Amino acid sequence: MSVNHELNNGNINFGISVGVNPEVNAAGAEYDRNLEEATAREKLAGVIDAAEAPVSEPIPQQRERMTGAVILQLVGQRGRNLELTRSQMAAGDQREAA
Amino acid sequence: MTSILKKVLKLITGDPAAASLSVPKNRPLKRLTERQLLQLESEIGAKLFGEVPEGHRREFFCFDAKTWIWYEEWKDLKTGKQQHSTTRYEVHEKGILKVQEGARYSFIEGEELENLEAATAMYYERVMREVYGFDPATGQRLQTQQSLS
Per-residue b/e over B81-108, b at no fewer than 16 CB within 10 Å? Predict the structure, then answer.
C-alpha cells in the first residue's frame, strides 16, 4: 500500500491507494457501504430502529413512510393496551363485587 | 354521524351536568363499569388540548382498540343553537382514517397525524397513571397508587 495522488472525477485526491491489493480494495468498498448505511440509519434515528430499513430509496421519502408506519403502530398499541386495561379493571371489579 | 355512534356517544358522555366523575381517594376504581372508566379517561382527554372555552364541551377518548373519538359541543353565538361536531379516528392497516359528519373520510398525514400521535401519547401516559395506576412505560403498578384490586 502506498500513498499516491489519485485522479477521481477530475479532482486530485490525496489518499491511500486501495487499487493494488484486491483484499484492501474489497475492504474499502465494504467500509464505504457500511458508512452509507450507518449514515442512513443515523438520519432515521429517533423514528425507528432502522437496522432493517432499506436504504435504497431517498431518505426523505423513506422517513415520511417510516414515520407514518411507526405512528400507526404506536397509536394502535396504545388503543389495544387501554382497551385491555379498561376491560380487565371492569371485569376484576365485577368479580370482586360478586 | 350514524345513529349508533350517537347512541354510543350519549351512553359514554351522558348528561354533561352529571358527567364529572371524580375518583374517591380511598376507593379509586372499585366497581366502576367500563362506561364509567371511559368517562374518567375522557375527563383527562378533554383537558389535553388546553382550557375548554366557556360554553364548550369537549370529549376526547379511546373508545376501543381501533377507535379514538373527538367530540366538541358549543352554542352558536349568533343563532343561539347548540352545535356539535364528532370526529372519529380509526386505526386501519394502511393508516389512520378520519371520519367526520357528512361522509367525509380521509387518511390523515403530516402534521395532523403527528398531532394525533402526540395527543394519544399524552392521553395514554396520563390515563394509565392517573386512572389505572400503572407505569405506562413498564406496565408495573405504581407504588403510590391505591390498591385497585
Answer: eeeeebbbbbbeeebbbbbeeeeeeeeb
So what's the pLDDT on residue A60?
53
Kindly report, residue by residue over A81-93, the tens digit of the pLDDT: 999 999 998 887 5
Prediction pTM value = 0.62
Please give the interface size between A and B, counted as residue pairs whose CB atoms are below 8 Å apart: 79
Angle at B69 between CA B64 and CA B74, to 5 degrees: 150
- Interchain contact A89–B (C-beta under 8 A): yes
Q: Could A75 and B30 be called an inter-chain contact, meaning their C-beta atoms sit closer than 8 Å?
A: no
Task: Chain A: give the shortest CA distance to residue B131, in Å.
Answer: 10
Q: Which residue of B has its CA nearest to A63?
A: B110
Cell numbers standing for residue A36: 452509507
CA angle B30, B34, B38 (to 5 degrees): 105
| Nearest Cβ partner for A89 among B29, B109, B124 | B29
The answer to whether ipTM exceeds 0.95 is no
Question: What is the predicted pLDDT for the residue at B80?
Answer: 87
